[in-house]
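Worked example 3. Consider a protein that binds zinc ion.
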Amino acid sequence: MAQYERYEQRVLRREQAAQPLLLGIESSCDETCAAVIRGRELLSSAVRSSAAEQAKYGGVVPELASRAHTDAVEAVVKEALLQAGVRGGQLSAVAVTYGAGLLGALLVGLSFAKAYAFALGLPLIGVDHIRGHMAAAYLADTALEPPFVTLLASGGHTAVLYTKSYTEFEILGSTRDDAAGEAFDKVARILGLPYPGGPSVEKLAREGQPNIPLPKMFAGAGYDFSYSGLKTAVLNYCHNKEQRGEAYSRADVASSFQHAACSVLADRAVSAAKAKGCNTIAAGGGVIANGYLRALLGERCRAAGIRLVLPEKKFCTDNAAMIAAEGLVQYRAGNFAPLTLNACAHIPLGRKGKQ
Ligand code: KG4
Ligand code: ZN
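Given these inputs, the predicted complex is written out as structure tokens:
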């Protein structure tokens, strides 16, 4: 009997190695998240957000975020395990965001993950948050395999990348100044809209028309982006109107900005895919939750005969399913982290190798 149990355990371990059961934990900003995946199948995803609390201050207050994570992390992990019908002891590994993000916020999730992994004798995987955003596509389309072109548009990064393999990518172009999400957030402030800026601009833009001429961004060759000029153009337009005492439509400003900001993303991604001879574009990052951008990408890709992989909106903004998805990539690459792994506020986009 004991021999049979040992055999059963060996079979179970072999199955797990092929389709590992991973817990993902994310706490880099104002969302405390946990998720469980088996291979590329999503079993659960739990999110508790302090965004409503942060909105009172017009943006994320790091100390408040850390405290909210401390209050929520255990319950969120329990919820994810419960939803998945999985006990901690059945897991193959724990994947956790170690950067980039708010240091105090990151440390809450990271410390919890380390203690949890240590207590259960599980391997720990440190995940770069931005690679997580990029890996969300692997759950959206479980058949997706590199190579493909990735469009990344988040609060801190905007880039078009050539994803050569699960672990290697080439940056084809990136932002020279503000990131796309940052521009949405700044324009929201100019228009007096509440935090978080991106969804507020999108909501207001639905009531307006993209009829205000704003400067074309980087019409030149290459795939770089620049959002700072666009944001300044919005600021100047509003100031000039106000100084002259002329009425203007904030909804038209939101709509015109959104159109300019999104069309450059769609254009760059499609031309990069054509240049690379790639018939697939995968997208990730908070800005990809924008409905106007999703529709535009859909149209442009259809016209060019390119397959588009868009994670559901809730997996574009912060979540732990994407952290588990990138954890799976690192698990399969044998890239495990020591328990001395520290949190990291900044991680350059192109950084390679082990933590
Ligand atoms: O990808 P993310 O979590 O940022 C980083 O990890 O750096 O996304 C946050 C960013 C914010 O700038 C937010 O305003 C933007 O994504 N965002 C949106 C929308 N939802 C979130 N931007 C435009 N439209 C949206 N619906
Ligand atoms: Zn994020």
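Take a moment to read the result before moving on. Strands lie at 21-26, 31-38, 41-49, 93-99, 124-128, 148-153, 158-163, 169-174, 280-284, 307-309. The chain has two domains: 2-134+317-333, 144-315.
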